[in-house]
Structures are given as C-alpha cells and as structure tokens.
Amino acid sequence: MADAVKAAELKNKGNSFLQTGDFAKAIECYTEAIALNPLEHVFYSNRSAAYAKGKNYEKALADARKCVELKPEWGKGYSRLGAALSFLGRHAEAERAYTKGLQLDPTNEQLKSGLEEAKAQAARNSPITNPFAAPDLYVRLATNPKTKQFLEHQDYRETIEALRKNPQLLGTNPFTATSRGEAKRRTNGDGTRT
C-alpha cells in the first residue's frame, strides 16, 4: 500500500514538472513511479507525454505502446500512441491509433483533432499531393540528364529533403527553385535578380 501511495505522489510531482516544462524531472518522477508500480498504465501515458514534449519520440512511442498494452480499453492511451507516431512521421499508423481510440472514446477531442491532423499530414506527404515524396524521386533525378548533376551538391539534396517533408516551402525561398547554386546564379548570389 505504501508503494502505491508513493507512486501516486511521484506521478503528481511528475505532472507538476511536466506543466512547468521540466521534462527531464518529470520523466525521472514517472520512471520512479513505474519502478514502484509497473502495471499502472497512467504512469506510462504521462511519461510518454513528457518524452514527446522533450522531443524523444522513440521513447514516447515505447511508453505509449506499453500504456495501450496494459489498458487496451483506455482511449487516451491511443492518443499518446497516435501523437508519438505522428511526431515520427508515421501518419498512416497514427491515423489507425486515433481511430481505435475514437472507437473506445468517441467524444475525446484530443483523439478527434489528432486524427484530423494525422490525415492532413498523410495527405500532404502523399506522392499524389507532394511530388517530392515519391519513393523513386532520387532514381528519377539521377537518371534525368537535366537534374543528375545537381545530386552531387549537398545543398541540393538538403533542399529536396526539406521539400519532401514540407512541399509548401516551394516558392517561399529562391533556393528551392533548383539547387542553391543555380538560385545564386539567378539572383547574383545576394538575392537581387540577374
């Protein structure tokens, strides 16, 4: 009984640290709570949130999975799972997690908004809506005589990767038109047009 009380106190302390943005201390508290009561799904859920806020998405995913394993009928666990998957760019899997959570808890606003965001991200990253997300993009660029030489430049590859993740960058920066070197030639290297 004393362990359960101590674990609950650690959880509350972790929640306070989480709210103030001290993710490392929050994780520490949740980890201690888990050591005292490794079957309490909420501890994993909260630690998953702390890991996610600290941008440690793989660990957030592991804890979210453990939470769902311990309490598969708890919708909020699927919210944590969906969030971790989304942060990792695994939007189709996130959609499935949010959908499962909504089956269990149809009024949960976190699950609803997470599902909408995962769907939007999946659509943005689809090769149909984002030509830079095509799996064979580099093969096509390497075999095209007009683009082949650009792949030799690191800044061009970095630009392509940025566009794969966010095609809305196209048109916001003269460097995204082609390689940075080509953009510099078009703009005298200082931003003014030739």
The run of helices and strands is HHHHHHHHHH
- Terminal CA distance reads 77 Å
The tally of helices reads: 10
Note the beta-strand portion.
under 5%
**Class by helix and strand content?**
mainly alpha
Mean pLDDT over the residues? 85
Strands, count: 0
| Major beta-sheet overview | none
State the oligomer: single chain
Q: Provide the gyration radius in Å.
A: 22 Å
Which stretches are poorly predicted, pLDDT < 50 over at least 5 residues? 176-194
Shape: elongated
Characterize the structure shown.
It is built from 10 helices and no strands. It is mainly alpha-helical and 194 residues long. The N and C termini lie far apart (77 Å).
What is this structure's SSE topology?
Blueprint: H1 2-20, H2 23-36, H3 41-53, H4 57-70, H5 75-87, H6 91-104, H7 109-124, H8 137-143, H9 154-165, H10 180-186
Helix pairs in contact: 1-2, 1-3, 2-3, 3-4, 3-5, 4-5, 5-6, 5-7, 6-7
Structural features:
mainly alpha, Hsp90 protein binding, single chain, 10 helices, Stress-induced-phosphoprotein 1, 194 residues, cytoplasm, elongated
Quick summary:
This protein is mostly helical. It is 66% helix and 0% strand. Helix 3 packs parallel to helix 5 (75-87).
